[in-house]
């Protein structure tokens, strides 16, 4: 279980997150909704150690991971699909996937490589192509695949739908659902509320760095107007 | 005649390439142009000279120890000077290397003075090889062999080892590399260590040909940069080939046009490449966003 407790983050004098508490049960798929600038990406970046917390805690299965370096956090089983996908442009598709297994160097990762490639036939065909030549959808698949190469317990995914055609977005989310079925806990950050409500079993809404609403999918489905109001739609 | 000139050019080009590789590996991984690379190599060469002359160690032993010295020196420079500057603008680090450049030059001057020394080479008086009627000096063969070994070793290291892959990831996107578990400080330290090692080897190989003094690396540094720009600073192989081409061009123009023109070709190459193809012949424009 991934638990964030009373987390606050400051960028200079600006408070990006204020006393945020969320919980992701093992095997669950939780979504964080929010408009631009609500603090969604900051939350994920703080969990994975890229951004330092001002106060509060992050714990994985009861062990505090707050303040650890990102390389230590990924080693403990939290992989992050960053905003904008973060595909390495000069790496081939194969290298982009393999670098995901960096924390497992020394182990035989070829079964995972074949498994991940099997999940994404579109990128399997482009194994030798350089990262920057892929389309947005392919890059997103590759970014998810790369995170899976770390054999994570928890997958953090930032704005998977950003800049993708609706049909591709549905494919990406179907993949995420598939990932979750393999036992990986998933925490997604999303602007597209309808989409998130279809896949997540529990949701939070962030506004100005605070949790303003939370509940299981059913509750959210009944209060779409309220969600829309919070998201400013 | 022309074959001799080409072989000599390749041998010189390999020396430029070593210095260029030392600079480029640090530049690509850390975005820092290390202006102290030449003086670091000079210090390593003086250290080798001290081992040879004052301690009387055999050549191979002295060179092996000096190579380790070069590596450790690179790591120390990174840890002491560059690491505290992580997070501040890259320009600060570049200015720091300029400062280090001056400091190292003065330190070497204090210890060894500003006179010239003769750096021995075990190959200086060996009979040349004869390859198809061309007499190839052993020093040329050694330069070319070492140059090839370094470019091959470096390419293998960066492409086929986890550490090298991590360093290449860091050179493209530091945040993503960290999310994958790559330590940026470690990658940077390794890059600086390799730079110190390869630069030092270049110093030791060039010293017997030009005499050893505190300005040992000055000319080499400019030529390495020109060759690097010609090949494309973000491609290791490109840098290598660019330096070879420069070495050959220099030798041919010196012989057929005028010896004084051989020097000028370096600067002509820099200017021409920067105007026509700033990314270099083998380089490509770095894609910053993915």
TrEMBL record, chain A:
UniProt key word Signal: no
Keywords: Amino-acid transport, ATP-binding, Nucleotide-binding, Transport
A Pfam family this chain is assigned to: ABC_tran
Molecular function in Gene Ontology: ATP binding; ATP hydrolysis activity; branched-chain amino acid transmembrane transporter activity
PROSITE patterns per UniProt: ABC_TRANSPORTER_1, ABC_TRANSPORTER_2
GO biological process: L-amino acid transport
Keyword flag Nucleotide-binding: yes
Domain of life: Bacteria
Every ABC transporter domain range: 2-233
Family: Belongs to the ABC transporter superfamily.
Protein name per its UniProtKB record: ABC transporter ATP-binding protein
Organism, as annotated: Reyranella soli
Lineage of origin: Bacteria, Pseudomonadati, Pseudomonadota, Alphaproteobacteria, Hyphomicrobiales
From TrEMBL, chain B:
Keyword Transferase assigned: no
GO cellular component: plasma membrane
GO terms assigned for molecular function: transmembrane transporter activity
Membrane topology: Multi-pass membrane protein
Pfam families: BPD_transp_2
Keyword tags: Amino-acid transport, Cell membrane, Membrane, Transmembrane, Transmembrane helix, Transport
Single Gene Ontology BP annotation: amino acid transport
Transmembrane segments: 6-27, 58-77, 89-114, 134-158, 189-212, 224-249, 256-276
Cellular location(s): Cell membrane
Domain of life: Bacteria
Primary site of residence: membrane
Family in the record: Belongs to the binding-protein-dependent transport system permease family. LivHM subfamily.
Descriptive protein name: Branched-chain amino acid ABC transporter permease
